[in-house]
Design goal:
The complex is a heterodimer. Chain A is mainly α. Chain A has one domain (12-190). Helix content of chain A is 68%, strand content 3%. Chain A has ten helices and two strands, in the order ααααβααααβαα. A two-stranded antiparallel sheet of chain A has the order 1-2. In chain B, 73% of the residues lie in helices and 0% in strands. Chain B contains ten helices and no strands. In chain B, helix 3 (52-66) crosses helix 6 (91-110) and helix 8 (150-159) crosses helix 9. The termini of chain B are far apart. The chains are: A mainly alpha, B mainly alpha. Chains A and B meet through helix 1, helix 3, helix 4, strand 1 and helix 5 of A and helix 2, helix 3, helix 6, helix 7 and helix 8 of B.
Chain lengths: 196, 188
């Protein structure tokens, strides 16, 4: 029963090998989906290319439903699966700052690294900036601490907050994504194409 | 009589090569593959994919190398230092090295390996580099506040149905749409 490494079913010594192989697949999937191009990525925000939305939502739904299925079959102990704990205002402000950084830089950290892998120099600047930003945060931590540690809500699950079952949430999430796929396909046809 | 045919063949070949560097896999296929990889990562490792965490580890390692006393005093960096082992020996650092290798392989197979600054024709290379860097800085700060970036918080966190993942995901994409109008000259 999973997860395997936290329960010692796979020896921890393998974890770096597994990490590298996982990352290699991650990089290959991101690159071959087009995420090494910032202009393709930001198409999402200007309506000329919705690749990010399709890949992101499809991946989230696949893994979400997969986890529920694995849990139902008794293959994984969901209580041992990590996700970031909820600190209300830190999650919101952090997300908003990242969104601003996304539209300015055209990359998120994962896609930026992916673009570095094929030689994009703007992505190198992006990753250097990322490094500086994290350094700035760590130096200015006393300033951020109250926001970072405030409004701790623990390991809350979204379906618990909404008061519905995890299965129903997955169904609603998938339905919203499906609607988004259809609507964005309709929008993309009507937006002036951008050559990139 | 042979000339036009040869020309046609050369054109067709050219077209294939031109298309090749811009031909990506189907987005839904990419999404399913990414979702299965994420599921496998959860199953094996108990936590999802990440990216900014590895950069955080390398920041901690750098500060610890240059100014060990400062690193231990820093309330934030000292969290990453742990038991004396270098922060670079982390799952995420190896995963990120894998991202670079995997992306290189995919780019090589598709003919996309090239030193290049990709930018809209309306802006200069300098402007593009400047904004790419500033975007990175903001992503660095935001990812620490939200305890993860698009990979660790938004994608992995949402797939595990964490409230913070869903909230962070909505804020990232919401803010990008909100600010898109102000930065449109950079892109379109």
């Amino acid at each position: 029963m999973g997860p395997l490494i936290p329960q010692g079913i796979i020896d921890g010594g393998w974890s770096y090998v597994i990490a590298f192989v996982t990352g290699a697949f991650f990089g290959m999937i991101l690159e071959s989906s087009g995420f090494s191009s910032s202009r393709k990525i930001v198409g999402l925000f200007y309506g000329y290319d919705f690749t990010v939305l399709r890949v992101f939502f499809t991946a989230t739904i696949t893994a979400m439903i997969g986890l529920l299925y694995f849990n139902y079959m008794g293959w994984i102990d969901l209580s041992m699966v990590y996700f970031p704990p909820m600190y209300l205002w830190a999650a919101i402000s952090g997300g908003l700052i990242m969104g601003l950084g996304f539209i300015m830089g055209g990359f998120c950290p994962g896609t930026g690294l992916c673009a570095v892998g094929i030689g994009k120099l703007d992505a190198v600047a992006n990753v250097v900036g990322l490094y500086l930003g994290i350094f700035l945060f760590s130096e200015a931590y006393p300033f951020f601490e109250k926001l970072y540690m405030g409004n701790a809500m623990g390991n809350l699950r979204v379906n618990e907050v909404l008061g519905i079952s995890s299965g129903l949430f997955a169904f609603l999430f998938a339905s919203i994504a499906l609607a988004a796929f259809i609507i964005t396909a309709w929008i993309q046809k009507r937006v002036k194409p951008v050559d990139y | 009589m042979e000339q036009p045919n040869l020309k046609k063949a050369a054109e067709a070949e050219n077209l294939i090569f031109m298309d090749k560097s811009k031909s990506y896999i189907n987005s839904y296929l990419g999404g399913v593959l990414l979702g299965l990889l994420l599921l496998a990562t959860f199953y094996i490792n108990g936590r999802g994919l990440g990216a900014s965490g590895a950069i955080k580890d390398s920041v901690a390692a750098t500060v610890n190398e240059i100014a060990p006393g400062h690193a231990r005093e820093s309330e934030y960096i000292s969290k990453s230092l742990g038991d004396g082992e270098t922060p670079l020996n982390s799952w995420l650092v190896f995963e990120v090295l894998g991202i670079l290798a995997g992306s290189f392989i995919s780019g090589a197979l598709a003919g996309r390996l090239k030193w290049k600054t990709e930018h809209s024709p309306n802006i200069s290379i300098r402007t593009r580099i400047l904004f790419a860097g500033m975007g990175g800085i903001l992503f660095g700060i935001g990812s620490q506040l939200a305890r993860g970036c698009t990979s660790g918080a938004a994608l992995s966190g949402s797939a595990a149905m964490g409230l913070s993942g869903i909230v962070t995901m909505m804020c990232i994409f919401g803010a990008a749409y909100l600010f898109a109008w102000f930065f449109r000259k950079l892109w379109i």
